[in-house]
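WARN retry 2 of 3 for item q-0093 after timeout on previous attempt; input resubmitted unchanged.
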Amino acid sequence: MAHREHQPAASSRWRLRPREIPFRRRLTRAAVALIYRRTDHGGTELLFIQRARREGDPWSGDMAFPGGRLQPEDATPRAAAERETLEETGIDLVRHGRFQARLSDLLTRHHSRWRPMVVTPYVYEWKGPKAVTLNHEVETLVWVPLDYLADKENQSKRPWRTPLGTLNMPCCRYQEYCIWGLSYSMLQELLAQPLTQPRQ
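OK item q-0093 returned
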């Protein structure tokens, strides 16, 4: 199934002007899926995965969105996000997800290298079954209420050690989980959208 990377949002309620990193096509690319669902009580929940704990992985055990690097068989970054989500969680976005929008590119690095990598987030509304099938890369899967994520009282700081010293990175803590880094940045852009407004 072919995808257009710049397909417009499915809903006119989205207020987005996603930023694109210059020369991104010359860099390694990755893509992730931000998946939300409506609850029976009219709320909205956002899907997170907790990465499996692996020695040598700097993001081992971190909270993230499903996704990964583009492979030769991926027609577009969006196709990569859908493929990786299916592999990691069993969630089939092609069949049961409703594409909403693309968020801004973010610059990071390879897990094991210092080379730059561009990550592009894609937003979907989930309309499928609740059953999931996690692979070896995922420890667990968590649906977090969007209202909780947006509440300023739930924002915190996470110490992050670097060669230049310790930085206090913004984060959101939910139960025993901590959402920070790239995932937190993507979350902030998503929270600027009117997802929590009643459907018309």
